[in-house]
């Protein structure tokens, strides 16, 4: 976008320069046909050189001799000689295809306009023009004829720098919003979206507690640390009793509310070090950093409290929720092995269901009794 704008500006700038060069030529041509003395024309050229940013201007007669010039030193010199002078290099661009001395004079019959410089497509360093003009001066007896060639050299440094500065500004103005937009997006991503995405990946969407994968990863770390420092832990598998019937009797939406209700209860029941997750369906899991008897006590209390805290439906009705819980601990045969602990807790849960549900079972405690 900025490049396109830049190219447009540069080509517009080149056209503007050509237009002002044409104007200048017209003004000087008018001076050449004003029946005025030669020295007046000479003064006009010098004035134009000072006021119009002309590098140089000269009028060459039909013989190829400089009649008047903004630089006095060039007056009366033959054009081929002028072209050899170091300071007049830009003029040579007009005559590159007129190699011989005679050729230069014959080329004077043409109108030409050439941008000179290392980067002519940017407008070049100079604009050199050659234009045929009638000649009508006061006392025209000098034998220099009634036609002459006006040659002007315009220095384009200032215009080119202005155009380049403008292009640079357009480029910066075009890219700044892009840069700031990308930075803003990155910051927003870091501050808001990434934590949200991380949270979404770790948290079960329905219940708001750890999902199965996060629970397993975190539980593995907690157990490894607990083994190192010798903290006893207990694993509890919890399943809602007759959840299918709750769904069937009240609808799936109320079933979802029950899942949220139980999750909230379990998350608020234990200590902050307890790890609470939802394995899926109506099955929950808790890793407690407690020995099994304390864990069983706490879970049984929670089970009873939940029973007396039924879910209140929007229609005013209530849904009683009962839990079966299976507990296994690191003091048992599983030790601190996560998978073995879960399998043992699952065995205890199965027994709890089998014994009529709505109870906490820890088989290890029964074995030692
Ligand atoms: P039990 O006492 O033996 O556990 O009987 P149950 O009816 O609870 O049986 P089970 O635990 O196998 O029931 C699971 C039901 O939970 C079956 C399924 O339709 C329902 N379910 C699973 N996931 C969801 C869920 O995200 N939302 C709702 N509302 N229901 C679910
Ligand atoms: Mg169930």
Question: Top keywords for this entry?
Answer:
single chain, 369 residues, alpha+beta, Beta-Lactamase, five-stranded antiparallel β-sheet, binds 3'-deoxy-guanosine-5'-triphosphate
List the helices and strands and how they pair.
Blueprint: H1 2-32, H2 38-51, E1 54-61, E2 66-69, H3 79-84, H4 101-107, E3 112-116, E4 126-134, E5 147-155, H5 157-202, H6 212-229, E6 234-240, H7 243-250, H8 252-269, E7 275-280, E8 283-288, H9 292-307, E9 311-312, E10 318-319, E11 323-329, H10 338-354, E12 360-361, H11 363-368
Parallel strand pairs: 11-12
Antiparallel strand pairs: 1-2, 1-5, 3-4, 4-5, 6-8, 6-11, 7-8, 9-10
The structure holds 3'-deoxy-guanosine-5'-triphosphate and magnesium ion.
3'-deoxy-guanosine-5'-triphosphate binds next to strand 6, helix 7 and helix 8.
Q: How would you describe this structure to a colleague?
A:
The longest helix is centred in the middle third of the chain and has 46 residues, at 157-202. The protein has helices at residues 2-32, 38-51, 79-84, 101-107, 157-202, 212-229, 243-250, 252-269, 292-307, 338-354, 363-368, and strands at residues 54-61, 66-69, 112-116, 126-134, 147-155, 234-240, 275-280, 283-288, 311-312, 318-319, 323-329, 360-361. Helix 1 runs antiparallel to helix 5 and helix 7 (243-250) packs across helix 8 (252-269). It has two domains: 2-161 and 190-200, PAS domain (Beta-Lactamase), CATH 3.30.450.20; 212-367, Alpha-Beta Plaits, CATH 3.30.70. It is of the alpha+beta class and 369 residues long. It is 51% helix and 18% strand. It has eleven helices and twelve strands. Strands 2-1-5-4-3 form a five-stranded antiparallel β-sheet. The site of magnesium ion has 4 residues, from strand 6.
